[in-house]
């Protein structure tokens, strides 16, 4: 039975199942399944269709998964040299030989938006002690949140904690940061160890209500400095306004009485000299 003969609900479930099978072979299980995968993560679609996991699948169904996947996990293209289609996962690989997947290297913080890693509250203490780890993947995965755009990939929807990454500091210290074709920010961590220490965190928040759980000391110091700066700025500003206003009031007072006061001896009496006696 093909997907086209299924009702919409069952077809949707079947596409999800097919996507999971593709994710498995393209990211993790190609070698176990006897599928040839190159350093860029490409596998020939014809080889996939011959595999037992895909015995009831056809090319159009794989194409539909590639085109409709909400996280844009897959990329498929025609190879001009042999006239065959090849497919790959855009990120998420655990296969060591897949080390040349097409990515954009980030050289400036202006190339990305807000970069953060989605995880779980239960890992908070280990993350603060040891940093973020790539675990069994080839990179640490982060969301690249562009203002005005919906988040489509980079973290699981069930994540309940967000770790915000200090991209300028990351780049300043020579840590590589990449963007996959589906806009996931990827890093190998400090010295390509697969670990990103807490030094490179800005803050950690609750994913649901955005309440700050932890904040790096340098961020706190920066906020304190900004507070002190503006406090003294406004203090001296209003003090200057007070002094100048009194000064101008005094000048105005002298000017007004000098020119408009009826007392001809104003200048003398005002300054304590008293009336001038006639000789």
From TrEMBL:
InterPro entries per the UniProt record, alphabetical: Ptrans_KptA/Tpt1 (IPR002745), RNA_2'-PTrans_C (IPR042081), RNA_2'-PTrans_N (IPR042080)
Pfam family membership, one: PTS_2-RNA
EC code: 2.7.1.160
Coiled coil regions in record: none
Keyword Transmembrane helix included in the entry's annotation: yes
Domain of life of the native organism: Eukaryota
Catalysed reaction, written as an equation: 2'-phospho-[ligated tRNA] + NAD(+) = mature tRNA + ADP-alpha-D-ribose 1'',2''-cyclic phosphate + nicotinamide
Keyword list, A-Z: Membrane, NAD, Transferase, Transmembrane, Transmembrane helix
Transmembrane segments: 224-256
Enzyme class, broadest EC rank: transferase
The UniProt record lists the keyword NAD: yes
Gene Ontology BP annotations: tRNA splicing, via endonucleolytic cleavage and ligation
GO MF, any single term: tRNA 2'-phosphotransferase activity
Function, in words: Catalyzes the last step of tRNA splicing, the transfer of the splice junction 2'-phosphate from ligated tRNA to NAD to produce ADP-ribose 1''-2'' cyclic phosphate.
Protein family per UniProt: Belongs to the KptA/TPT1 family.
Protein known as: 2'-phosphotransferase
Species name: Dictyostelium discoideum (Social amoeba)
């Amino acid at each position: 039975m093909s997907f086209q003969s299924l009702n919409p609900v069952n077809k949707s479930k079947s596409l999800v199942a097919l996507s999971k099978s593709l994710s498995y072979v393209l990211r993790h299980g190609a070698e176990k399944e006897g599928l040839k995968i190159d350093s860029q993560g490409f596998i020939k679609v014809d080889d996939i269709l011959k595999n037992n996991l895909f015995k009831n699948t056809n090319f159009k169904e794989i194409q539909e998964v590639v085109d409709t996947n909400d996280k844009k996990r897959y990329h498929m293209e025609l190879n001009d040299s042999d006239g065959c289609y090849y497919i790959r996962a855009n990120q998420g690989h655990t296969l060591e030989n897949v080390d040349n997947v097409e990515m954009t290297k980030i050289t400036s913080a202006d190339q990305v938006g807000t970069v953060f890693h989605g995880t779980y509250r239960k890992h908070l203490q280990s993350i603060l002690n040891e940093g973020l780890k790539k675990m069994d993947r080839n990179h640490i995965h982060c969301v690249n949140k562009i203002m005005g755009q919906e988040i489509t990939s980079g973290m699981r929807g069930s994540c309940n904690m967000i770790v915000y990454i200090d991209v300028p500091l990351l780049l300043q210290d020579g840590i590589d940061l990449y963007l996959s074709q589906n806009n996931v920010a990827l890093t190998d961590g400090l010295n390509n160890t697969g670990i990103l220490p807490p030094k490179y965190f800005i803050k950690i928040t609750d994913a649901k209500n955005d309440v700050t759980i932890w904040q790096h000391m340098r961020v706190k110091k920066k906020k304190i400095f900004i507070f002190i700066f503006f406090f003294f700025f406004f203090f001296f500003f209003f003090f200057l306004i007070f002094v100048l206003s009194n000064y101008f009031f005094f000048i105005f007072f002298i000017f007004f009485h000098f020119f408009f006061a009826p007392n001809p001896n104003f200048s003398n009496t005002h300054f304590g000299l008293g009336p001038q006696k006639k000789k």
